[in-house]
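Rotation project, supervised by the postdoc (A.L.). Task for the rotation student: set up a whole-complex structure prediction and record inputs and outputs verbatim in this book. Inputs entered:
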Amino acid sequence: MEAARPFIYVGCMANTPSRTTPLSTVRDVIGSGFPALTQPDWVRAFPWVVQGTTMHDSGDEAPFDLGLFAAGSDPEAARRRWRILRERLEADRVVHAQQVHGAHVRVHHSNRTAVEDPHLVDPCDGHATDMPGVILAVTIADCVPVFIVDPERRAVAAVHAGWRGAACGVLERALHEMASSFASRPEALHVHLGPAICGMCYEVGPEVFKALGQPVPKRPTPIDLRNVLGQRAVGAGVPNDAVTVSAHCTVCTASGLFSHRSGHDERQVGFIGVRA
Ligand SMILES: [Zn+2]
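Outputs recorded:
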């Protein structure tokens, strides 16, 4: 077994590589079993992984809103839908946390059967595990769900990354946690930047470009946050042909996704786990 190359987490600073490499775009497809948008290459390559992003009509009752903390959400109804999600995914527990646009990533070592849906842990924006039967879940509605697979160690991670989390290095932190907990090597990892607001729809102020270490425009300008995150993954050692970007946009493609910028209060869930 090869030793993990040390990966140093640099904390809350802009460190997007200046050199950019083209990333592959893939169209997530609706998976069989549970209707969610799934990275199609991973279905074939990693049959031991369950991964996807829920949609407006993923459950029997639409909208399939899984938001527990958003304004206007109904936590009791949402918890029923979380239970449906766990049962349909045949998982022992679905782990989730209130998200705070930070860089904290929690590693989960228990696969005890859930006593609540979802199994809530203290606030954080990323999760990692190598425990079969544990599903990691982040809620999104424009922000980027980042999915990470380590085929060598059979470990996975899910990250919620808006521009603040990206600027704080939440993706790099997830890679660091996988290296320290599972001996994951960055060059063995696969990263998918899931359904999120696209580089044409996401207009932000100059301060966002600055925070992300990008050339700063004079006026509000669209930014491709998934490309920024993908470049960071490559900069951290993930092979660029192992980084994919979803073709789905929460705003401009008809994908049945909630969009905060489009006025939706609801949230979809990006999930990943090792099959039980
Ligand atoms: Zn778009």
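Student's summary: The chain is about 20% helix and 25% strand.
Supervisor addendum: The chain has one domain: 30-274.
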